[in-house]
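The aim of this short unit is practical: by the end, you should be able to scan a pair of folded records and say something sensible about each. We start with the first protein, listed as its amino acid sequence and then its structure tokens.
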Amino acid sequence: MQKIKDSADNLLAIILRFDDDFKTGKNFFTKDNYEMQLATFNLPKDTIIDSHIHLEQKRIINSTSEVIAVMNGQIQISIYDEEKNLITQEVLSSGDISVLYRGGHGIKVLEDSKFFESKQGPYFENKDKVKF
């Protein structure tokens, strides 16, 4: 697992590599107070995760966290701090995941790729995004 932080030690992103970070068991990578939680599960056959329901909770969400998971192919994610300074560029390949917590980001598709994005909602493009 790779944590990407800005110069003030604020968490900007977490990168999980499919080959390195899917260790046996249930592995949570975030603190309970993070707005977006991140975990991996690598469990043996016949494991049961008890049926459950998530109760409705009122939450204060200060920013939009985003998950990018590469299913197939290769992409490059550029990660910026909140002042739009480039912090790093990371190449993600099949099975890799990035959770983007703060700052900015951009994506360049390096080869034909299938990836999915998940983020908190509701989300309004004209209110929640500034391009630079």
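Turning to the second protein, read its sequence before its tokens, just as you did above.
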Amino acid sequence: MYRFRMGLALGLLLITGFGCQNKVADERDALYRQNRELQAKNRELETQRDARVDPSKLQEAEQQIAQRDQQIADLQNQLRQPQPGASAPANELAGIEVTKDEKAGTVTVNVPGDVLFAPGKADLKESAKATLNKVASAIKKDYSGKKILVQGYTDRDPINRTKDKWNDNLDLSAARARAVAAHLTQQGVDMKKVGLHAYGDTMPRNSKEKSRRVEIVVLTRD
């Protein structure tokens, strides 16, 4: 009877289709940990529901969770707003998404390869650097000390026109992951906490565009 929803939509950097995002990656780890503590408290109260439980405790927990949810919503709104003085193209961050896996303890920022790189290249586009700057800022603010995995992926098209640069798709995905990781560390993310994974074309999605991507995975658990 004292059950209430504890869901915490931790859309870290919900950068999907709006135009400049990243600032959430961080301010969320603290919120997530606090929310988990509230969930634990609530479960304790539920187990005592046949006893005389002070309703004010449940009300207080409910208010705290609502406050956390509002903070997360505020952070997401910040991501939708351009930074002062920024003039990024409206479609610059199209397709970027952020997902949270509570079971795995991860928050993943999925950045399309076409946003970050020109075809067959591993040099970051200038327009992509502002996006990664926001990701780095969020990581430093809310995920300081957490391990970060930068994972590169490609589509299944074989390397042809750039065969002089890359041995295969695995080679290209590794170079792209390195480029993203290097930029994050240049922005102050602790390089000792950043790891690289290259998957090449081994984990394609349902389209070539979605298959070409770099995922920045924050391991939120200690």
